[in-house]
Automatic annotation (TrEMBL):
SUPFAM superfamilies reported in the protein's UniProt record: Isochorismatase-like hydrolases
Family: Belongs to the isochorismatase family.
One Pfam assignment: Isochorismatase
Name listed for the protein in its UniProt record: nicotinamidase
Keywords: Hydrolase, Metal-binding, Pyridine nucleotide biosynthesis
EC number: 3.5.1.19
Entries under Gene3D superfamilies matching the protein: Isochorismatase-like
């Protein structure tokens, strides 16, 4: 069996200067790159997810509530949908796009260019353990990690390499991780309320 790193949504729009920026996002991108360089043999496989919106319906709103509606972000074909330049992408074997026509938070809702889903991709390579990093701790990282555990992967969230939107929703995410038997290491980057 083998292990994989899942890099969640480390895209320009979710980092400082983006349309839905999370404080610390650029630092998370750089931190993931440093870890990949420092420990090149730590993971057998490295994959990434991207928010990849075409027309996600009510996921976008002119007056977003930042709970279930959001400003426009990660629209296909825009610079904001691209990976942050601080993220080293040379180890990424597959990218799973999610949310083209509906809200999608979990990387397990996405598909690679050939249509294969993340769970099937990992299983075909004998992966049984995953580490999850990226943006945002309390939204897409949370959903991806919970789905990884539901799919039967031993799941760890490397919180030092995640950036969170808000303290309250991060507390909910951390409790959800604990309840799902997900291991957490470190603490997320989070802006004080």
């Amino acid at each position: 069996m083998s292990n994989a790193l899942i890099i969640v949504d480390v895209q320009k729009d979710f980092c400082e200067g983006g349309s839905l920026a999370v404080a610390g996002g650029a630092g998370v991108a750089a931190g993931i790159s440093r870890l990949l360089a420092a420990e090149p043999d730590r993971w057998d496989h490295v994959v990434a997810t991207k928010d990849y919106h075409i027309d996600p319906g009510t996921h976008f709103a002119e007056s977003p509530d930042y709970v279930s509606t959001w400003p426009r972000h990660c629209v296909v074909g825009t610079p904001g949908s691209e990976f942050h330049p601080e993220l080293a992408t040379d180890r990424i074997e597959a990218i799973f796009h999610k949310g083209e026509y509906a809200a999608a938070y979990s990387g397990f809702e996405g598909n690679a260019d050939d249509g294969e889903g993340l769970a099937d991709w990992l299983r075909r390579r004998g992966v049984d353990r995953v580490d999850v990093v990226g943006i945002a701790t309390d939204h897409c990282v949370r959903a991806t990690a919970l789905d990884a555990a539901r799919e039967g992967f031993a799941t760890t969230v490397l919180l030092d390499l995640t950036a969170a939107v808000a303290p309250d929703t991060t507390d909910v995410a951390l409790r959800a991780f604990e309840g799902a038997g997900i291991t957490t290491i470190g603490a997320p980057v989070i802006q004080a309320a």
